[in-house]
Amino acid sequence: MENLSITEIQAAQLAQRYYGLNGQAKTLPGEVDFNFRIDTSSGERYTLKLSRPETAPDELDFQVAILQHLAEQEFPYDIPAMIKAQNGRYRLAITDGQGRKRWLRLQRWVGGRMLGHANPRGKGLLYQWGECCGQLAKALQGFDHPFAHRFYKWNPSETLASRPLREFITEPDRLAIADAFWQLFEKETLPKLGSLRKSVNYNDAHEMNLLVDHQLDRPRLSGVIDFGDALYTQTINELAIACAYAGMECPDPLQAVKQVVAGFHKVFPLQEEEVGVLYSLISARLLITVANAAKSKHAEPDNEYLLVSEQPAWGLLKKWINISPTLAHYTFRHACGWEVHPQLAAFENWAKRIDGSIAPIIHAGSDRFHPLDLSVGSLALGNNGNFQSIPAFDRCIQRMLEDAGAQVGIGGYGEVRPFYTTDAYQVEGNEGAQWRTVHLGVDFWAPAGTPVVSPLDGKVVSVQDNAGERDYGPTIILQHRVSETLSFYSLYGHLNKDCLQQWKTGDTIAKGQEIAQIGPPPENGNWPPHLHFQLMLDLLDTHGDFPGVAYPQEREVWQSICPDPYWLFPHLVNRSNPKLTIADILDDRRLRLGRSLSISYANPLHIVRGFGTYLYDISGRRYLDTVNNVAHVGHEQPEVVRAAQQQAAVLNTNTRYLHENLVRFADELLATLPDELCVVHFVNSGSEANELALRMARTYSGQKDMLAIEVGYHGNTNACIEVSSYKFDGKGGQGAPPHTHIIPLPDVYRGRHRESATAGKEYARYAQMAIANIQSEGRNIAGFIGESILSCGGQIVPPSGYFEEVYRHVRTAGGLCIADEVQVGFGRVGDAFWGFELHDVVPDIVTMGKPIGNGHPLGAVVTTRAVADAFANGMEYFNTFGGNPVSCAIGRAVLKVVSNEQHQDHARSVGGHLLQGLRDLQREFPLIGDVRGHGLFLGFELMRGGAEGTPAAAEARYLANRMRQRGILMSTDGSGYNVLKIKPPMTFSRSQADFFLENLSLVFREDFMQ
Ligand SMILES: Cc1ncc(COP(=O)(O)O)c(C=O)c1O
């Protein structure tokens, strides 16, 4: 092949000779021109461009003109400004070694990173992508140039010119897709192109031509390069091309493209006709890509690059063909802020006029209908256990109807429901897992066999058995033509099978005519008997079936296509008492609650349900909880919930009356502890437990001084704060009070004795020194308080021998040793039931909280007989709530579940698997400085530059935020806020651990984490 390029040395010489630039040249990739980056000795940077031999000067002048035009506009992105040569010309004719005429040009370098290299490419970037194209369209209005009026094969409007290349597409399934799109273009789009706005377009807004700045967490689109494809064509093509690239390689291209459309429309308002052809023009551009790739592949079958480069376009075409063009059109309308379905207003006007005068779909007196709340946070629906099996769900519905004395339950339009948020319904979206949770119809819950009546005259559009677990079962769709211009559809799902024989497509049905009966499970799709009734203004190219639930982010689109059926029976619904929105709750919190209460995440979560290892927000999104060790045996564990409900329904009093629960719980709890620890006092929180423990130590020893560990946290009461370095050494704190003595964090990763094999002893020596100091002032110590693994300190596992030595020093001085097990107890650490058992010590007092009540406020202090007796010095210890029958019932249920479900063993095995997975990630990502912990109490620490480098707090925060966006809740802690803590409910499974690790690995690859 002919070599048209020149060497870097030659390029540098050209830059010197014609532009007076002294510098180095470096070859850059280029499809048309031969490009070199010139770095001058004075630190400036340029692009030197050498044309191919036959390049027409017009083409180059056109590019100069367009760049100059943009430079004169308020175009808010960097562009490659043209630089004149020393002779005052923008293009210079030179003769190459073979005597051919070539053009030389120089442009100022545009800094930044390619959008295509930005990871992740979130909604914000997609929106900016659209904005940038909108700015191009806006700035190029009124610009023209003769060279722009040319045929160019990359023009989406010219996609049919690529159609003859279909012969090179050898795979039949690909060809079928391509043909379908060419046909769509030819039939539907081409005839409309003539009436659309035209302008000179940049025409090449793909991710390698757009630049983003160097902000890695919130990159800003900053520059546009390569104007070689600019062309006079339909303005909408500017957007179509960007969308064709933005939709590639993401799980849900329509949602990605929607962002681009919204960004474009904000800057350069689109017209309805343009939006109507966008779906097709996006595919039109993709067809040009794949058809030309097929041809090149044919010419160079061994060129692997060609194979790879066409994949994303085919990938998108395959997804695009499965998206209804109508749905895409409505989605784009929504992105533009227009009424999604153009007929919605007409429907609502008609519905208002008929004012409910339709035949009742289900016959019953209007006082026999009762609204059922089946929303994700519904208290009537209750625990997930109530709807996980069909019999349980059926019982739940029956109970609601019986309680209300009703015959028919009604409700559900727009309701976010928790039933569908399971693994089986999980779909990968652009922001992680997603579920269709928003219900689009109204359900009538009534016995199987209840007749279903058509509310209006209609025609049968389809009769189909959508058999399949939790599907519609037998389904009828009717069409109702209610005026010359308005027609809509109604869907009846979960019917009985008889209707499948009774009706066929095309049959007419009169208002009030029975069309079917409510079907029984399992033939109704295996649901408790009910009718799903839904209205649709459009069937979106479906037949016999239609989505009955939508993704929360698509709610408005679907609710416009599927209008509110309550319009037809307004007297049956009560729309008063709307729920508080997130903004309402935030406002009220600000107004009425103390500002020292913090809220997780800048974009707060509104959680309304929990179950097992998951929390569910108001939109029905499911979050994997890796943080909450309070919900020890799982959120809303049914046995624990039942124990609470049953006991609360019968009796709750204080401990001055006798109750079996108190002594049984005490027995069962003490059975988990060493024999010496044989007396328990029940309290209501971890803070209260430590408060009492401190009082006991002080009463027992007659001393006040306490030893505590650096960055330790023990609770929110006065006495607890006074031993919590995490608080008094942190924000708003005033340092240690005189009787508190802080000893260093026994950190073997970053602490002062990290290199030492005898770190345990060395760290313990600080306890000895502190005691000696206290004694030198004529006092002694009351005791020592410490967590067995330090949670707020950053999941620090003290070295072996540490506690043994500290306890020895404390006891020698007559003090007591308090193990704070509020975070780590109850089998969480896997190898032992209690954290202190990992260290082979027996404390004098053990304090418990969080997991003991699985979310119910409960705590306990367990101690030796001697300490308890010393504490009982005549002053009564009264606690209004501590040890009440409800709390004890809950505590007993938790212990029972921990034992029956072998949570300790589970924590050992899943925790081991997770620890191994984290260590594997650590090898891959040096940002992970340390991985540590036991069982399901783990942590990893992010450091820039290893143990002696700097704590990577911003990265830790970024990671936690990104994981939340992907549906996983994590928390950060440690003195440098750079430790990610993992302490999930003990129901955390191996597959959840794998899901978690996969997502971590994904986020660790993102720009900000590099
Ligand atoms: C180790 C430790 N001790 C005590 C407490 C205080 O418990 P509570 O918040 O239940 O009062 C906490 C709470 O975070 C804790 O982490």
Concise structural overview:
This protein has 1010 residues and is an alpha+beta fold. The protein has 26 helices and 41 strands. Bound molecules: pyridoxal-5'-phosphate.
Description:
The chain has about 1000 residues and is an alpha+beta fold. Helix 4 runs antiparallel to helix 7 (about 270-300) and helix 24 (about 905-925) packs parallel to helix 26 (about 990-1005). The radius of gyration is 35 Å and the shape is flat. The mean pLDDT is about 95. It binds pyridoxal-5'-phosphate (PLP). The site of pyridoxal-5'-phosphate has 14 residues, from helix 17.
Distance between the termini: 41 Å
What is the averaged pLDDT score?
95
Ranges where pLDDT stays below 50 over 5 or more residues in a row are none
Main sheet makeup: 8 strands, mixed
Q: Hetero groups bound?
A: pyridoxal-5'-phosphate
Strand content: 15-25%
- Percent range for helical residues? 25-40%
Layout of helices and strands, plus pairs?
Elements: H1 8-19, E1 23-28, E2 34-40, E3 45-50, H2 57-72, E4 82-83, E5 92-95, E6 101-108, E7 113-114, H3 123-140, H4 172-193, E8 198-201, E9 210-212, E10 221-224, E11 231-234, H5 236-246, H6 253-267, H7 272-299, H8 304-321, H9 325-335, H10 344-354, E12 369-371, H11 390-404, E13 408-411, E14 427-429, E15 432-434, E16 438-439, E17 442-445, E18 451-453, E19 458-466, E20 473-481, E21 487-493, H12 498-502, E22 508-509, E23 514-517, E24 530-536, E25 549-550, H13 555-561, H14 582-592, E26 607-611, E27 614-617, E28 622-625, H15 638-650, H16 660-670, E29 679-683, H17 686-701, E30 705-709, H18 718-722, H19 725-728, E31 740-743, H20 759-776, E32 781-787, H21 802-812, E33 816-820, E34 845-848, E35 859-863, H22 865-871, H23 885-900, H24 903-924, E36 928-934, E37 937-944, E38 950-951, H25 953-965, E39 968-969, E40 971-973, E41 979-982, H26 990-1004
Parallel strand pairs: 12-13, 28-39, 30-31, 30-32, 32-33, 33-34
Antiparallel strand pairs: 1-2, 2-3, 3-6, 4-6, 5-6, 7-9, 8-11, 9-10, 13-17, 14-15, 16-25, 17-24, 18-23, 19-20, 19-22, 20-21, 21-24, 26-27, 27-28, 29-35, 34-35, 36-37, 37-38, 37-41, 40-41
Helix pairs in contact: 3-5, 3-6, 4-7, 4-8, 5-6, 5-7, 6-9, 7-8, 7-9, 15-23, 16-23, 17-22, 20-21, 24-26
The structure holds pyridoxal-5'-phosphate.
